[in-house]
Design brief:
The protein has 100 residues and is α+β, with helices and mostly antiparallel strands. It is built from three helices and four strands, in the order βαββααβ.
């Protein structure tokens, strides 16, 4: 079963350029992961410092491999001081069943 989630965070004022650079570089690496099916980065139109990242992984094992990737911890460590939250807020998603 696919592992799908939404990661959200708000960039601190003045750190917009640095976060954009970090997330662009990180996205390229994640998209190259064998089990990654989507890593789409968005900002809210009405609040451009608010980021939403839609992620889909082939399955739980692919998601665990993503979490264990060597570039994940350095990215998250760099991001922590640049965002308002303590860390990205993760919301795991399930598809709506076709038949109720």
């Amino acid at each position: 079963m696919k592992k799908t989630l939404l990661a959200e965070f708000t960039v601190r004022e003045g750190a917009e350029g640095e976060v954009a650079r970090l997330i662009r570089d990180y996205a390229l690496k994640v998209r190259d992961e064998e089990g990654n099916l989507a890593f789409d980065v968005y900002t809210k139109a009405a609040a451009p410092r608010a980021y939403w990242i839609f992620e889909v992984y082939r399955d739980e094992d692919a998601f665990k491999a993503h979490l264990d990737a060597p570039y994940g911890a350095p990215f998250n460590a760099a991001l922590t001081s640049l965002i308002e939250e303590d860390a990205s807020v993760l919301t795991f998603l399930d598809p709506l069943a076709a038949h109720a």
